[in-house]
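REQUEST
  id: r-88c1
  op: predict_structure
  target: SDR family oxidoreductase
  payload:
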Amino acid sequence: MSRPLGIVVVGAGSGFGAALAQDLAASGHRVLAGSRRARPANLPAPYARVDVTLAESVTRFAEEAHELLGQIDGLVYCAADPGAVARAWEVDPQDASRVLEVSLLGLVRIAGAFVPALRQAGRGSIVTVGSQAARTPIDLLAVYGAAKAAAEAYTRSLAQELHGTGVRANVIGIAAETDLARTHRTVKAELRGRPSPHPPLPPVNDSLPLARWLLTDDARHVTGQTIEARQP
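RESPONSE
  id: r-88c1
  status: 200
  body:
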């Protein structure tokens, strides 16, 4: 392995974020994992609570990250809200607001807290976890897809505006068994009164190598891209 990197993973309370934080720490990188949830079991890395919907919480988290890691080389944004799973015209606007608050505005707050230091260091990789739902309409996920599309567009804009600074920004789309996938299946079955056929989803670990690669200097030529880790 090349030199250990300092990497912040936001949204590491479960699913892909927790798996990535564990994978990076096990690989010898310096990792700070953060989430609104309680610390995941068996996570071999420092963990801090952060609520991306609150500016003061994000500020404290960024301060803790810089104090703990020193130089930050990578920033991964996995935070998402699995709510607002419903027919597009039946979504509660408050549920929709919460999903957008986490998926988009949370990313904006995190970027505001971390990008200045990355620019000053003249290096760094930002990875946003997107979704196929951002590019392909999926039944009952209108709001989630819209929020992820906004987060993906924001990340590509970051990449363009950071061009020449040494800081990169990319999106990965994952198809994996997560809390959202389980909620989606449950709500769909309830609405239709029967289980819905669903292609088998791979485990989150199948998407880890792409995220790991984008964080390293081996991917220093890649920025402003949206890459699907694996199709179901």
